[in-house]
Amino acid sequence: MNLENLFKPKTMAVVGVSKKNPLSPGRIIFIKNFFEMEVNVYGIHPDGGEIEGIKLYTKLEELPEIPNLLVIAISAEETLGYVRNCAELNIPACIIIGGGFAEIGSEGIKRQEELERIAFENEIAVLGPNCIGVYSPPLLDTIFMPTERITRPPKGTVALISQSGGVLVDQFFHKFNEIKIGVSTAVSIGNRAVVDETMLLEYFSKYDKETSNIAFYLEGFKSNRSKEFLRLARESEDNVITYFGGLSEQGIKATKSHTASLSGNEKIISAVLKQNLIFQPRSELELLTHLKLLDILSHKRKPFDPNTIVNGQIAVLSISGGHGVLCVDLLKKYNLFGVEFSEKEKNEMKKLVNPVARNIASYDNPIDLTGSARDEDIENIIHILSKIERIECIILLILPYTPSISFQIGRRIADRVSLDKKPLVCFIPYIQKYSLIIESLELSNIPVFHSIEEAVQAVHALKILTRRKKLIKLK
Amino acid sequence: MNLENLFKPKTMAVVGVSKKNPLSPGRIIFIKNFFEMEVNVYGIHPDGGEIEGIKLYTKLEELPEIPNLLVIAISAEETLGYVRNCAELNIPACIIIGGGFAEIGSEGIKRQEELERIAFENEIAVLGPNCIGVYSPPLLDTIFMPTERITRPPKGTVALISQSGGVLVDQFFHKFNEIKIGVSTAVSIGNRAVVDETMLLEYFSKYDKETSNIAFYLEGFKSNRSKEFLRLARESEDNVITYFGGLSEQGIKATKSHTASLSGNEKIISAVLKQNLIFQPRSELELLTHLKLLDILSHKRKPFDPNTIVNGQIAVLSISGGHGVLCVDLLKKYNLFGVEFSEKEKNEMKKLVNPVARNIASYDNPIDLTGSARDEDIENIIHILSKIERIECIILLILPYTPSISFQIGRRIADRVSLDKKPLVCFIPYIQKYSLIIESLELSNIPVFHSIEEAVQAVHALKILTRRKKLIKLK
Prior knowledge:
homodimer, alpha/beta, seven-stranded mixed β-sheet, 17 helices
């Protein structure tokens, strides 16, 4: 089944453009695409006429051209008629917004089965029902929430596929926008009667060049499709991330009524995914950390080779003892280890630290250069740590609160790391006035996070990436 | 030992005001207090003279008045002389900023022992050494980081005591400012040679009326003081929160070099704290969630009685199925339970929901009113849930992205909850344009959080509070 028309249609039509209710989903979709997006869009209303000065057509046959995509935003009862229309007119793709299918029980299940029959027999790529559709910038946006109400993420490398529209616009869009993770295309699959997560995984990993990372929110796999999903995920050259909801006992009950999922042997599948190093974040924070890291690493220019964290041997460098302690406390949780330094290595560090900090600093791991540390101390210690081979990655905790750290610190670290090429992940508190420091690191594609735990999670992500790279090479 | 002069001095003197180095700690402390704070402050420099047009005095004896507090920001070697000076002149309190004591080993240990001897013999409340001192607005601020570099939290009910200055200004100050948690006084205890966490617990719970919540960051208790700490924490009418760093194997190693802590039987103490319902957050996020909740509940005006969550029986109400699923997934982790609704209760709900959403909504727990829900649906369901006695608390997940939710939703919920008096905790994504909704809830002191997990953590906090209240009543 060809999915391209769902994401790259030249022409799109919308059914369900209410003249009375400006907040109806069909009308919002029509209007936002007409005024904001690049696709050529037509509105259908049985009575014709116009809204906001834009002509409406009474039926599909009346349109000046046959659209590549039909968006259906009307009641469940009327929906199937329009899908049959697509078959007759050779419209190859269709998005069904409304609910009233398998998720409401017997009557709806029958309706959904009929929908599937028509779609598969006529090769129509049907997305939904019970979904918010597609966001494929700059071409189209079928999300029925007013654009000014949601927040849009920047353009980037992550394709998003979500079984929940709410999770898509909130956990993904809003948070992506906040921490600047870029999206290529976003898809809400709803009841996934026809187009499912497995077909989308194939599409994005094989046919979409803009995408190099594919993230899923799923409440279970579509039945009989998990093996194929697994095969594709294993073989994909893109990074695949699967975030699961509804795996708890209470959650399983809930998903049944939500998108009519057949939650089944997810725990087994989850174990197999893990074996194949398909990452499954355990929390929203971990999900976002991994995606942020992957999006940064998708840049061609890399300050270091990210695929070198085999065992997770870490050095922690800080100017606050407490931060160092909190950081090493977290290492074990993420399967990472603090290296030990030899007396020789410690002495080498000590010699290079400024005289005020020298004797009060601590050169064990975590290294605490104290509030008397200066820019060059941090730079020098990074240089020494970079030469120690058994250190696979440095976690640097920068606190620009102390007076001896200058606002050049970001640039100095960025240049040092780019020259020494030792993997390094930074923590800097996110405070507006420190954006100068944060940006100088980000411009060199050095991963920067705003909590200690995220920095540790990011190194864990690097470890998984390294292992997956090896696994793919072995094949 | 009287600690009041550390926090409420009328007059303060600073030793170590460098004329050459504008970034030296003593100079920063002197200048910021002179220009920004209300305490009467004098600067000491052996040569006298002036900086920035302000007169400096050559020695303590020369000051126009004997200060209540002396801040010492000079080398470890010279520090003791000034402490002896305090004894001679009857200066009752003193803050020692510099390091070079127990944390650097043998020579420093001796120095610290001598410091303790002088202080205890002469009843001088010595804070530190190796600390950043006291923030007691609007009177004084001895944090040696320039004020424009750190962020200051708003004024409020939480007293902060931290063994790490870095954690104090970052995890506490910066985050408190971000999520608006108010601070009464903040103290960095450093090596806690004399004034320790136990003395401060006593001071804040017995003598400071502004404080009703006391939060600690500790890397272990001072030796032989844990029993007394425990007794005070158990008996305190304030809420006591202890956040521990350095309890992991790697962390224990690190704390030894950091503040010369004698980390010992913390795990046992931690178990005893738990028995007495002294809350120990497991993560930074949980720490902040609890403090935010406690700060809100410190207001006299409360929309509901917070001390009624005995078993943790929860109803989750959402307009996004995915959000509901993610929320119930988290309940077990926080020792909470989703109630089940009877058919009668479900029918009662269904009858009140608008016709568009009625048949596609789900009335199991989590309740999913779908993207077609309107303000009055949410309000009506809250009213029904409030009448169901076995529900102890409602978690409401509001997503104002959908067009049928109005910007009055916050006010409507706030009024409903204040009338029905059922405990309710909200999740709303933190997006600037939704502050209108967020503020209408916050003005009624309804707890609002910006991730699902925080909302669940907050209910967990309510459960602990309820149990602690019972425990205290029993005594």
